[in-house]
Design goal:
Blueprint lengths: L7 H24 L5 H11 L5 H14 L1 H4 L5 H20 L6 H25 L5 H13 L3 H18 L6 H21 L24
Helix pairs in contact: 1-5, 1-6, 2-3, 2-8, 3-5, 3-7, 6-9, 7-8
């Protein structure tokens, strides 16, 4: 009996998206003008440990994944790959990209990081191999509590930003820019990368459209 093998194109989108996500996060770190909500927490934790941000990101992702158990969430290939790949890609980029001090360099890095994050999110979601651990936590809480995803996401991200900032994480204009821009950017690039359905496919194996959740590392 033959086994189903995911298309190479989808796997390529998945892993290219994850690598680019880690790289985009590194650009925001080097810009030094404010990070994404979860990376504020990761940076704050890294400040108080001897671990790199990428390792902290991986450890936190694994811990968040454990919270899926009582929420009865099922991880996919994309979920596990998110935990393993994004942090490694982030650390690799940080190693080759030096710290920047000139504002004329940091601002373009910030913009490039936000746009690249949108590209990465579109690729990852279009691959449709399951949500990242942090997005799965939010959708799981939504299903278990009945509260809106927007409310839960806002509450979770405000909490992690507050804790991360208290620990020394970088909050600034980049944090606000990311919050305002990532939704429209991700939606645009999701439409760009989403695979068109084949003209003829048996109903039993027809694939659903990619989900609309935003990827978190």
């Amino acid at each position: 009996m033959s086994m189903y093998r995911p298309p190479v194109r989808r796997l390529t989108r998945l892993y290219v998206g994850l690598v680019l996500y880690g790289a985009s996060s590194a650009l925001l770190v080097r810009a030094g003008l404010g990070l994404e909500p979860w990376n504020v927490l990761h940076q704050g934790l890294a400040e108080h440990t001897r671990l790199s941000m990428g390792v902290v990101l991986t450890v936190v992702g694994a811990l968040v994944l454990l919270l899926w158990i009582p929420l009865r969430q099922r991880p996919g290939l994309g979920t596990v790959s998110n935990v393993l790949v994004v942090g490694a890609a982030m650390d690799a980029t940080l190693r080759v990209l030096p710290e920047q001090h000139a504002l004329a360099v940091r601002v373009p890095l910030l913009v490039a990081g936000v746009v690249l994050n949108g590209v990465a999110t579109g690729l990852y979601i279009a691959a449709d191999f399951g949500p990242g651990p942090r997005d799965g936590l939010m959708t799981g809480l939504h299903r278990r509590t009945g509260r809106s995803v927007r409310l839960i996401r806002t509450a979770v991200e405000v909490t992690v930003v507050t804790i991360g900032f208290a620990l020394g994480g970088d909050v600034g204009a980049g944090t606000l820019l990311y919050a305002l821009a990532i939704g429209p950017l991700a939606q645009f690039f999701l439409r760009v990368f989403a695979a068109r359905p084949a003209p003829v496919r048996p109903a039993a194996v027809a694939a659903g459209q990619p989900g609309g959740a935003i990827l978190r590392p």
